[in-house]
Structure formats: structure tokens, C-alpha cells
TrEMBL record:
<dbReference type="GO" id="GO:0005524">
    <property type="term" value="F:ATP binding"/>
</dbReference>
<dbReference type="InterPro" id="IPR027417">
    <property type="entry name" value="P-loop_NTPase"/>
</dbReference>
<dbReference type="Pfam" id="PF07475">
    <property type="entry name" value="Hpr_kinase_C"/>
</dbReference>
<keyword id="KW-0418">Kinase</keyword>
<dbReference type="GO" id="GO:0000155">
    <property type="term" value="F:phosphorelay sensor kinase activity"/>
</dbReference>
<dbReference type="GO" id="GO:0006109">
    <property type="term" value="P:regulation of carbohydrate metabolic process"/>
</dbReference>
<keyword id="KW-0808">Transferase</keyword>
<protein>
    <submittedName>
        <fullName>HPr serine kinase-like protein</fullName>
    </submittedName>
</protein>
<feature type="domain" description="HPr kinase/phosphorylase C-terminal">
    <location>
        <begin position="13"/>
        <end position="93"/>
    </location>
</feature>
<dbReference type="InterPro" id="IPR011104">
    <property type="entry name" value="Hpr_kin/Pase_C"/>
</dbReference>
Length: 158
């Protein structure tokens, strides 16, 4: 809560977000970078691990801090909808919000490092510091999903 009791307004960003187990994963990247494909691959990975998995939002995600945690909410107009390449917009199981535990940035190949950045593996959003995983856009959704799950395990959130 801010001074005067009013909660800060949510920040809308172009991103996708999913919940895997109890961990929210925020996926950022340029249009066509593979955010939706990675979100779907993460949900499939959750299913294969016997974990809970749900879409939080695709295309537009609202972020806000609450008691030191970053909360992601999908846009209500597209709740439960995600673009699947070659099929168009499909409806899948969704939750209204998740506590973000990992941010994944999908970067152009010339900006993405081969290995995770050991010096600066964090990003601050809405005054909340979170682990950051930088991956190559278009690098294969399954490989990217496995990398994200490995990071969640490293930080003890899955």
C-alpha cells in the first residue's frame, strides 16, 4: 500500500505469464519472439512433471507489487486465450493471477548470451527484485522451457 492507503496502479506490459506449480513465470520479448510458444511449452512441461500449470495471461499482462511480491494478472478481455502458431487463438485453462518468481527475457540472437549471466541474474520490476533468465528468441520453446524449469529449481521455487 502506498501513502494514503491507495494501492499503486498496475503496470500493463506486452508479455505472457504462466503458473508452474506455485511459481509465476513472466515471459518478455518482442512481437514474434516466441512468448506464447514458450508459455505453452512451460504448461506442457508442468503437465509432464505432474505439476499444476495454468495460463495467467498472453499478449498483455498487468503487474503490481503487493507486500514485496510481484503479482501478474492477465487482461480480462483475453482471459484463458493464447495464440498457438498455426491454429490461431485457442482457449486453455487459466488462473487470474500468480506471484512471479522468474522473469524470462527472449532476446535477439545477437543479444543473447550462450550461458546465464552470473554477474547480473536479476531484474527489478515494480520495485521487486526477481531472478532473470535471458534466452535466445526462437531458440526452441522446449529447450527454453527446460531452462526455465531448471532455474526455478535452482531458486527453490518448484
Amino acid at each position: 500500500m502506498s501513502v494514503g492507503g491507495a494501492a499503486p496502479a498496475p503496470v500493463a506490459i506486452y508479455a505472457s505469464a504462466v503458473a508452474v506449480g506455485e511459481a509465476g513465470i513472466l515471459i518478455r520479448g518482442a512481437s514474434g519472439a516466441g512468448k506464447s510458444s514458450l508459455a505453452l511449452a512451460l504448461l506442457e512441461a508442468a503437465h509432464q512433471m505432474g505439476r499444476f500449470g495454468a495460463l495467467i495471461g498472453d499478449d498483455v499482462v498487468h503487474l503490481f507489487a503487493n507486500h514485496g511480491r510481484l503479482i501478474a494478472r492477465g487482461h480480462p478481455a483475453v482471459h484463458g486465450k493464447i495464440e498457438r502458431r498455426g491454429q490461431g487463438i485457442v482457449e486453455i485453462g487459466a488462473e487470474s493471477a500468480a506471484v512471479v518468481r522468474l522473469v524470462v527475457d527472449l532476446l535477439p540472437p545477437d543479444q543473447a548470451a550462450r550461458y546465464p549471466d552470473p554477474v547480473n541474474p536479476y531484474v527489478t520490476l515494480c520495485d521487486v527484485e526477481l531472478p532473470l533468465l535471458r534466452l535466445r528468441a526462437g531458440g526452441g520453446a522446449t529447450d527454453s522451457a527446460l531452462a526455465a524449469v531448471a532455474w526455478l529449481r535452482q531458486f527453490g521455487t518448484i
